[in-house]
Amino acid sequence: MRPAGYGEDQPRLDDDRLPVVLVVLDGLGDRPIPELGGRTPSEAAATPVLDRLRRRGASGWHLPFGWGPAPASELAHWAMFGFTGVPFPGRAVLEGIGAGLDLPVGLATTFAALRTAEVVDGRLWITGRTARDDEPDATSLLASLAPVLEKHSVELHLLGRGEALLLFKRFPRGNVTDSDPFFEDFHPWLRLRATDETTLELAASMNAFLRDVRAHAARKPREPRAPRRGQACF
User: Fold this and answer.
1) Which helix (H) or strand (E) segment is 203 a member of?
2) Could you give the CA distance from residue 65 to residue 58 in angstroms, rounded to a whole number?
3) What is the C-alpha separation between 112 and 157, in angstroms, rounded?
4) DSSP character at residue 167
5) Which terminus of the chain is more exposed, N or C, with fewer CB under 10 A?
6) So what's the pLDDT on residue 15?
């Protein structure tokens, strides 16, 4: 039988070693809309399970970088677990460790994901992500990139669902900006930029690699069972 404290209606066990469940509602934030009487979708939604969790636990504000800044999810999570004072190694490193990869130290590593896209007025706009039933097509497309990977000295490690880690073997680790527009309706696919003079060559190499991947994906025949809203690209 379980000791007291593990059942919903049992008295609390005076033991600080009890497990803690941290519920992170990543991406739940929204804006008030007139159709809901000035409320956000979360405020208007029926949330009996979340309400029950709130009554049994604790909730509050967490401002990892103060009021105003809106950090990316991975930075906010990093700070949430108490690592604010520790340099963030990057999502790619954490994804690789989580996947059991033995990543080399001192090598430029980035996270990549396939996206559907379409060209509008000469600009490339992201239109969606790979779905669960796209797994065979995504794996096939990534496997077909071997010539492009060899040309640019890039090593690819599959993570599943069209996601992968890319190791740029000619470059040490360095910071560049993201190619993900984040707000797909406001910005097209972004060109990578160097954050300082030491990463100029890395940013240029990554941009050239992405353009070649795009061209390769546009030439690859689509499977008739998996219609797309554009060509798959990084």
Assistant:
1) helix 200-219
2) 21
3) 10
4) E
5) N
6) 60
Cβ atoms of 131 and 228 within 8 Å: the answer is: no
Low-confidence ranges of the chain (pLDDT < 70): 1-18, 221-234
Please list, in sequence order, all residues whose beta carbon lies within 8 angstroms of the beta carbon of residue 29, skipping any fewer than 6 positions away: 40, 42
- Evaluate the CA torsion angle 69, 71, 77, 81 in order and state its sign: negative
- Contact, 234 vs 114, CB < 8 A? yes
The Cα 215–Cα 219 span in angstroms is 6
Domains in the chain: boundaries: 12-88, 104-233
The gap between the terminal CA atoms of the chain, to the nearest Å, is 52
pLDDT of residue 147: 94
For residues 234 and 88, what is the distance between their CA atoms, to the nearest angstrom? Answer: 23
Reading the block at residue 182, the tokens are 């984040």
CB atoms within 10 A of CB 115: 22
Phi, psi dihedral angles at 175 (to 5 degrees): -95, 130
DSSP assignment string, 116-166: EEEEETTEEEEEEE--GGGHHHHHHHHHTTHHHHHHHTEEEEEEETTEEEE
Pair 165, 96: CB distance under 8 Å: yes
Residues 76 and 64 sit within 8 Å (Cβ to Cβ): yes
Q: Whole-prediction pTM value?
A: 0.69
Q: Which two tokens stand for residue 68?
A: 């105003």
CB of 107 within 8 A of CB of 167? Answer: yes
